[in-house]
Amino acid sequence: MKTKNTKYSILDLALVSEGQTLTQTFNNSLKLAQHAETAGYTRYWLAEHHNASTIGSSATSILIGYVAQGTHTLRIGSGGIMLPNHSPLIIAEQFGTLASLYPNRIDLGLGRAPGTDRETAEAIRSDFMQAAQSFPNELEKIQRYFSTDNATSKVRATVAEGVDVPIYILGSSTDSAHLAAKKGLPYAFASHFATTHLDAALQIYHNEFQPSEVLQKPYVMAGVNIIVADTDEEAERLSTSLIRLIVGIFTGNRDYVKPPTAMTDDLKEIMKHPQVHQMLKYSFIGSKATVKAQVKAFMKQTEADELIAVTNIYDAHDRIKSYELFAEIMKELNV
């Protein structure tokens, strides 16, 4: 185990639970962020998704502003903005504005996936595929708009120039690892669902990392699914909502987050399915003692500088409690 402290953060999709309105969902996100602030979390990121009635974080920058307004010290950001969906100029303006309103608290995590289906991606931006292939160039545009050197350019994001907004590269494959290393930027890997390439991506990032003005040595964030409760049995019960979400993804029958049920033999069989098992490889579910042992092993495996936790369960109170228990775990591991 490393002696350095490993930071811990939250990734939120603003998932809509059955029977909840969007307003309630957004309020629950804010309440979670407020609890996270007192529990020692480093950052609270919101993910961009579209055309999904179960996900509320489609207007990501607006929701970031809402959460930032209701908190004080917690870093708030995107995990991530799917850059091919957007004009780099507009994103620079949005995040430059956010960072002026909430100084030293706004992060800009950037990904290249659409965060939706192909038809919706084309509705968002007709040249999406071309923009996705141009991701490195689009990233350079963002960096240029934030630079004071752009002040003499004909096209400027004046609200972004010289504003401090750290940029993170998000990835779920090895492609993004090469880019993050080349640019000398921090790297956040989506190992909470894309488990296959985690080790290879981190190895590439570390081996190819080139120091930059913003980062002198590699910085890795790794995503994990976390469900912590008083007992293993209770955590297992809460996880039934997550299992049904996963089934909905694989079958195309996406639905609101369902209330938890008893763990049935059928659900246990679903957990053993190769695709589901692989997707949930870095899902740590159980009591504090159980999850602590699993997280400790994951930290040793990845040597991540920061864990970003995803807790997709039905009830807002259970979710807050899980995150508070996870914070206790991290504090104990960091001693």
From TrEMBL:
A GO molecular-function annotation: oxidoreductase activity, acting on paired donors, with incorporation or reduction of molecular oxygen
InterPro entries linked to this entry: Bact_Lucif_Oxidored, CmoO-like, Luciferase-like_dom, Luciferase-like_sf
Domain Luciferase-like: 9-243
Gene Ontology cellular component list: cytosol
Domain of life: Bacteria
Any coiled-coil regions, as ranges: none
SUPFAM superfamilies: Bacterial luciferase-like
Classification via NCBIfam families: oxido_grp_1
Family note: To bacterial alkanal monooxygenase alpha and beta chains.
Identification of the protein by name: Luciferase-like monooxygenase
Organism of derivation: Aureibaculum algae
